[in-house]
């Protein structure tokens, strides 16, 4: 089974040289620690920045410099700043090659739910609906099952959708799937996970 | 015409009325017009509708107007850091219209640019699309979203000159340039007011035509998530 860092490291292998990429909050943020040698990517923060740098040292904290998760960050030589309308113009205009996001549920047709649980948890979609509708490729990184042990890879989502048929790849603690015609294609098993285990933890149709 | 005012209270004089629609800049607690929000609280004006990406936290930003029940409705994309907001919403005291973040930014931009509506792919197939016009372009489905025209826009910038030309700093820019354009009146609060002619005209982010009143003040600039790395 993969831990959070191993999942992030696996997701980082999807990055390609020269890409502009948006990383969501949580495990996706860790992906920046595993960008492969020789692969030059520029990270977008949808509040209005390209070229996001690492967290600051204590003396370099700047209240005017945060990421989309409201965390303090730093700038790089390549950094540019812009307004939110410009930020989402580049997202909706298809200029961002890939988004790596967390999820509550993913369906076998690529439907994604990650923004609310009716009556319980109302946080909002933030920029997630724009990202999944606009970027070139959507990779979800999440645990395969919820706290009750139920599969988060479903035939159909039960929660309100963030986007319809938008997910291309899912990386979980148990393995990696592609979303293909007719369901999910099992690509890889995480370390120490058997084929039987991952299938038992998947409600969605696995086509292979 | 003189655009510089002595305080947030003075700048808001004659502008506020119950039930008005206010567009605000800011993302989280970054680049929010904190002095104007405090003055709106002190005025006591009520039944406000706010278009703002977030609702602050319980005791800072728009959160202070939720505590005093001055807000009737929020148009926002993310309200996750505000317990009082969640409580008022789930109990039905507060109306909430969720807008995807890019839709909200573009609605402000469009409203300010005289564009009544625009089509976007964002939200197609979700509850956001319910009741909205759908239209296909080149085989893909889009939904119609409308421009926002607010009674008042409040923004935070870094520097202004006496003409109301504004420059923002780093990610504190966020929604401020779009919000500044979509109000009938726009009031900007800044950290520094410089004489006309001392800003580089090539580097101005919001031209003064959009900005009607400017105040300068000390900003707390609270940090929501203080994350550091070892030196």
What does this structure look like?
The complex is a heterodimer of chains A (208) and B (231). Chain A is of the alpha/beta class. Chain A has one domain: Glutaconate Coenzyme A-transferase (3-Layer(aba) Sandwich), CATH 3.40.1080.10. Chain A contains five helices and 14 strands. In chain A, strands 4-3-2-1-5-10-12-13-14 form a nine-stranded mixed beta sheet. The mean pLDDT of chain A is 96. With 231 residues, chain B is of the alpha/beta class. Chain B has six helices and 13 strands. In chain B, strand 3, helix 4 and strand 4 form a beta-alpha-beta unit. Classes of the chains: A alpha/beta (208), B alpha/beta (231). At the A-B interface, helix 3 and helix 4 of A face helix 4, helix 5 and helix 6 of B.
Which properties best describe this structure?
heterodimer; A: 208 residues; alpha/beta; Glutaconate Coenzyme A-transferase; 9-stranded mixed sheet; 3-stranded mixed sheet; globular; B: 231 residues; 7-stranded parallel sheet; 3-stranded antiparallel sheet; 6 helices; 13 strands
Gist of the model:
The complex is a heterodimer of chains A (208) and B (231). Chain A is α/β, with parallel strands linked by helices and 208 residues long.
Q: From the structure provided, what is the oligomeric state, counting identical versus distinct chains?
A: heterodimer
Q: What does the overall shape of chain A look like?
A: globular
The average pLDDT value of chain A, as a whole number, equals: 96
Q: Describe the strand arrangement of the main beta sheet of chain A, using strand numbers.
A: 4-3-2-1-5-10-12-13-14
* Percent strand of chain B: 25-35%
Helix content of chain A: 10-25%
The largest interface is: A-B, 53 and 59 residues
The total tally of domains of chain A equals 1
CATH architecture of chain A: 3-Layer(aba) Sandwich
Give me the CATH superfamily of chain A.
Glutaconate Coenzyme A-transferase
Query: Any low-confidence stretches of chain B, pLDDT <50, length ≥5?
Result: none
- By DSSP, the count of extended strands of chain B is 13
User: Which consecutive residue ranges of chain A, at least 5 long each, have pLDDT under 50?
Assistant: none
H and E order of chain A: HEHEEEHEEEEEHEEEEEH
Quick one: biggest sheet of chain B? 7 strands, parallel
